[in-house]
Amino acid sequence: MPRTDNSEPRRAGRRPSTSRGELEHIAFELFDRNGFARTTVDDIALAAGIGRRTFFRYFPSKNDVVWGSFDHQLSIMRTGFRDCPESMPLMEALRTVVVDFNRVPDAEARWHRRRLELILTVPALQAHSTLRYADWRRVVAEFAGTRLAVSSDSLAPQAIAHAALGVAVAAYEQWLADARSDLGELLDAALRELAAGFGR
Questions:
Q1: What is the domain class of 20-64 according to CATH?
Q2: Domain map (residue ranges) of the chain
């Protein structure tokens, strides 16, 4: 008789993974071992002890594994901007929220480093990353537009959003190049330089 539920047979090996975080870690281990391009969704699902359908309940694609819960993090970022007091200057608020956006628990630091290495160095991820960068810039531009009382699509908010992403990427690259460096300190310093340039 055909199966009438949506459950999938358990596979031998590692116990079934039941969280996005576990699935990300398993995928990152496979990317390290086999390379991103040569690792398939089937490989990740097999290593996690789940089926393809279960994988796609967590992530729309292999590329999305690398970005993790990015949409959720952007929602938190929006809330952070909304909670900034009106008395806080625009660029100070931007620095505060972006630095906080990049804080991760110590236990997740090595995974965050690996995530950024993949995002910044894997050619196959660049097109997907462009879309994600646009989402990030949109959140920043919306905040800047609100503070400046102009449309988020106008020049100043867009310039601030693009510049903020640029200095953030520069900080990420410095962090990846020096294992002794602190990402929060690098972002703070880079965004202070940006604020001095915009003078807001």
A1: mainly alpha
A2: 20-64, 69-196
Please say whether the beta carbons of 65 and 40 come within 8 A.
Answer: no
* Cα separation values, 118 from 60, 79, 113, Å: 18, 27, 9
Can you spell out the DSSP letters for 85-125? -TTS-HHHHHHHHHHHHT---GGGHHHHHHHHHHHHH-GGG
pLDDT per position in the chain (200 positions), as tens? Answer: 332 333 333 444 445 446 888 999 999 999 999 999 999 999 999 999 999 999 999 999 999 999 999 999 999 999 999 999 999 999 999 999 999 999 988 888 889 999 999 999 999 898 889 999 999 999 999 999 999 999 999 999 999 999 999 999 999 999 999 989 999 999 999 999 999 986 55
- φ/ψ region of 151 (left if φ > 0, alpha if ψ in -120 to 50, else beta) reads beta
